[in-house]
Fold this protein.
Amino acid sequence: MYRTLMLTACLTLPIAAEAQEKVTIALDWVLNTNHVGLIVARDNGYFEQAGLEVDILPYSDTSSTALLAAGVADFAYMTSLGFMSARGAGADITALWATMQHETGRLVYNSNNTDITRPADLSGKTYAGFGSAWEDALIGTMIRNDGGDPTYDTVTLGTGSYEALAAGQVDFTLEVATWEGVNSELLGREQSSFSYADYGIPDQPNGYIGTRSEVLQDNPDMVASFMTATQQGYEWAADHPQKAAELLIATGEFPNPELVRGSMQSIVDGGYLRDGETPVGKIDTDRVAEMAAFLFESGVLRDANGEPLSWSGDVSDWIDQSWMTE
């Protein structure tokens, strides 16, 4: 009798009670709206339905690309620069996904600064920066392409750059339009901006999710399941931005819920997640190649000895979207 009851109970257990495959993904920064699809996929049950138990690792001082390359995580959410720097230097990682179909970064300055009307006017001004070679290549190219002398002073302030700009202590900085830009609007700051693409910087996709080649080879079904559920999460966020914002807010990570709500609306209104008929998460290989060429040719991508890497002319093997059905 006891054995019969046990057998009956086992046969009637819900599917969700079956063992889930454990998967980890490292984040490139503290949780924000770039990661919204991962939270949606987790909290709406898409990962669970795919047979996965996904651990979204908290941001740490070690870059997500380094954690991925070292085998600490199965997947990583990576900045474009982080991914290209690691891959260009020989890391065995592959991009599977790009969150943003267009560049969300921009150069920003105070609207009441009448000395700045175009990038050429930035010559001789003071820039609040973040300490990367990418910034000099970006800003120098914008100034040069606008006919100016790419000479300016730099103070490295990190996230303090935005307060310094608002206080008029520096002349310009770089920001993410869908986060810092939204925050400035909420704070009533009157600021203007220049788009990178208007001054010769390739308009790149951004926010990569990638894995290692060995994971692709050894467990392609898991990769496909994880990425399909992730895509489902981002598609839902694109269709329901404010509901997705509330899922993010519910994590308790955000002291200003209005920033999350405004950011989600900015992402959707700007066509960042979904651009026309382009599937959410699709990587435009041509535009990846354009940005990679810019970074190689500008001397931004370097080897372990600090020597500039040579441009191979091809990045097709940097990307694998065979998991995606169109």
The CA atoms of residues 165 and 234 lie 33 Å apart. DSSP finds 13 helices and ten strands in the chain.
